[in-house]
């Protein structure tokens, strides 16, 4: 690090808080060697060196804003903030260590996991829901249509069609049983 006395560093921090961009750049440049050295020792998945470097610079900016320079040594405060921030990032990324993208290459081949998962055969191609619905009576089709496709409740359907609620439930259950038997 370029040596700056504590008083000079405090003065630069106060100037940068007031909006002096030159002082802000000097403070960031002061911590630049530490940031580069520390960032190259840390590995975080999906972060490259530039991301870590930018994260550390952001931490320096937050330290300038938050550090009470009357109570704390700014250099120590900022260095600890940088370390703590990166270690926190490492801890949060540990949760996602076992993730695997479907777009990753499979061994030495040029295909991906997603290519392997694509199924070209369709087992339901020969028998569709429309074929199964053709086995239902008109009343059973009507109740299935209103309850499952139009969003009516069983009570609303029974009131709309003028059918007893219990009869409505029996028709619905009978229709679902027929559909289940046809699809299996």
CATH superfamily of the largest domain: RNA polymerase sigma factor, region 2, helix turn helix motif
Radius of gyration: 33 Å
Average pLDDT rating: 85
The CATH architecture of the largest domain can be given as Orthogonal Bundle
CATH topology of the largest domain: Rna Polymerase Sigma Factor, Chain: A
Level-1 CATH class name of the largest domain: Mainly Alpha
Count of discrete structural domains: 2
Shape summary: elongated
Summarize the amount of helix as a percent range.
Answer: 55-70%
Number of strands: 0
Largest sheet: none
Structural class: mainly alpha
* End-to-end gap: 74 Å
DSSP summary: helix tally: 9
Low-confidence regions: none
Q: Report the portion of residues in β strands.
A: under 5%
SSE order, as H and E?
HHHHHHHHH
GO biological process, one term: DNA-templated transcription initiation
Pfam families: Sigma70_r2
Keywords: Plasmid
InterPro entries: RNA_pol_sigma-70_dom (IPR014284), RNA_pol_sigma70_r2 (IPR007627), RNA_pol_sigma_r2 (IPR013325), RNA_pol_sigma_r3/r4-like (IPR013324), WH-like_DNA-bd_sf (IPR036388)
Secondary structure layout plus pairing:
Layout: H1 6-17, H2 21-39, H3 49-66, H4 74-94, H5 113-117, H6 129-133, H7 138-149, H8 154-161, H9 165-183
Helix pairs in contact: 1-2, 2-3, 2-4, 3-4, 7-9, 8-9
């Amino acid at each position: 690090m370029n040596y700056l006395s504590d008083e000079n560093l405090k003065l630069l921090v106060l100037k940068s808080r007031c909006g002096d961009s030159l002082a802000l750049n000097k403070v960031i440049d002061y911590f630049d060697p530490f940031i580069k050295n520390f960032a190259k020792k840390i590995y975080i998945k999906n972060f490259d060196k530039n991301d870590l470097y930018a994260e550390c610079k952001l931490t320096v900016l937050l330290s300038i804003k938050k550090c009470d320079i009357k109570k704390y040594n700014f250099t120590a405060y900022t260095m600890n903030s940088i370390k703590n921030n990166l270690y926190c990032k490492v801890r949060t990324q540990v949760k996602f260590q076992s993730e695997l993208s479907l777009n990753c290459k499979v061994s030495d081949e040029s295909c991906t996991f997603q290519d392997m998962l694509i199924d070209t055969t369709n087992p339901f191609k020969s028998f569709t829901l429309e074929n199964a619905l053709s086995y239902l009576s008109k009343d059973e089709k009507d109740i299935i249509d209103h309850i499952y496709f139009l969003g009516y409740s069983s009570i609303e359907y029974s009131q709309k069609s003028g059918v007893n609620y219990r009869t409505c439930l029996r028709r619905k259950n009978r229709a679902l049983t027929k559909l289940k038997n046809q699809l299996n």
